[in-house]
Amino acid sequence: MKRLVLLCLLVGLFSLPSFGQVSVGEKGKLSGLFFGDYYWIANHHNQDLDGRNGFWIRRIYLTYDYKISDSFSSRLRLEMEHDGDFQGNSELVPTVKDAYLKWKSGDHQILAGISSTPTFNLTEAVWAYRSVAKSPLDLYDFGSSRDLGLSFIGELGEAEKFNYHFFFGNGNGESAEFNEGKKVMLALGYDLTKHFIIEVYGDWNDGTTADTYTLQGFIGYRSDVFNFGALYARQWRQIIGTDLNLDLVSIFANKQLTEKAAGFLRVDHMFDPYPDGDDNAFLPFSPEAESTFLVGGVDVKLHETIHLMPNIETIFYGENALGETPETDVIPRVTLFFEF
After folding, report:
1. Residue 311 near residue 296 (C-beta atoms within 8 A)
2. Alpha-carbon distance 86 to 78, whole Å?
3. Distance (Å, rounded) from C-alpha 249 to C-alpha 63?
4. The pTM is what?
């Protein structure tokens, strides 16, 4: 049954007559996106991965939006992806990414169901290259992009310079849970000027085996030709028997170079060893030492909705507890992105 569903989705995706959102009836709309890589692991701290290369589908979205009335609308989004540890052999299986009912009145809206969290919505928008690399808090597992619960979003003030996003959810991603604890998330943003924005974000997750607290400060600049962002984040993990504090900084930018080309660059630094880094679903890190993640490349626009992006990911490590430095990770890639 899973393979039949996947086949129907892919046939529908690639048989669409042209790129662009497709109307389904008077109130429905079908859209989606695809991105994946050809990668080569030129060097890696895990020598078993050295030299591996191949094609990898990192994300397929198929989204259906339906307008119920002027106040109510809904969304269903399916997601498919391959394992990102360069060792798995999984097939593409659809899972539910979004499933919510939205009520909107003026500048305020309430979403009920599975929807995006405020954890890195803004930073991901300013970074603008999720198809190349996850945003910093997403990459290092400081939080999830989705949760199941209630989301409150809006703008405040006559000039609409203040914005808020409050989420009360399970704290377990898209999955259901049955414990007593829940997760609360809040992002408060302010438009300093037409282009500059600042945001403060915090959350508390009352988990079954650990409580986590996250705090982030972010400043960004957005325009049609240049984006820039800088953030600092700290997460406190109160695990039974021990406590763990993680500190992260990130600086990134992208710039339009010509009508058909743009460049992007990002640097992240983890001041602490990345726990469970070897299990990262996007890029295996060494969990033994602090790390600096560097990614840069060029975005070539083949069509308004089709992009080809040669890029290189590099991870430098500090010394571990034994005074040794893990090998540097170097992974050249060519990323293809298109949406419809």
Report:
1. yes
2. 23
3. 33
4. 0.89
Token pair recorded at residue 57: 């589908």
Pairing of strands 22-24, 72-80: unpaired
Indicate the burial class of 97 (C-beta count within 10 angstroms; 0-12, 13-18, 19 or more). Answer: buried
Cα distance between residue 103 and residue 179, in whole Å: 28
Query: How far is Cα 11 from Cα 156, in angstroms, rounded to an integer?
Result: 44
As to burial, measured by CB atoms within 10 angstroms (0-12 exposed, 13-18 middle, 19+ buried), residue 164 is middle
pLDDT in tens, 171-209: 988 777 777 789 999 999 999 999 999 999 999 998 767
In this structure, what DSSP letter does residue 43 have?
Answer: B
Q: How far apart are CA 54 and CA 73, in angstroms?
A: 40
- Amino acid at the residue 228: F
How do beta strands 22-24 and 146-156 pair?
unpaired
Tokens of 126: 């300013």
Helix spans in 193-245 (H): none
C-alpha closest to that of 80 among 92, 98, 91? 92
Eight-state DSSP code of residue 130: T
- pLDDT per position as a tens digit, 310-324: 999 999 999 999 999
Joined tokens for residue 175: 């999955």
What residues contact residue 24 under an 8 Å CB cut-off, 6+ apart?
30, 64
Contact 246, 237 (CB under 8 A): yes
Would you tell me how many other CB atoms lie within 10 Å of the CB of residue 220?
Answer: 22
Rounded alpha-carbon distances, angstroms, from residue 35 to 130, 180, 305, 306: 9, 38, 12, 10
- Rounded to 5°, the CA angle 331-335-339 comes to 155
SS3 49: helix
Spatial separation of the C-alpha atoms in residues 133 and 142, rounded to whole Å? 15
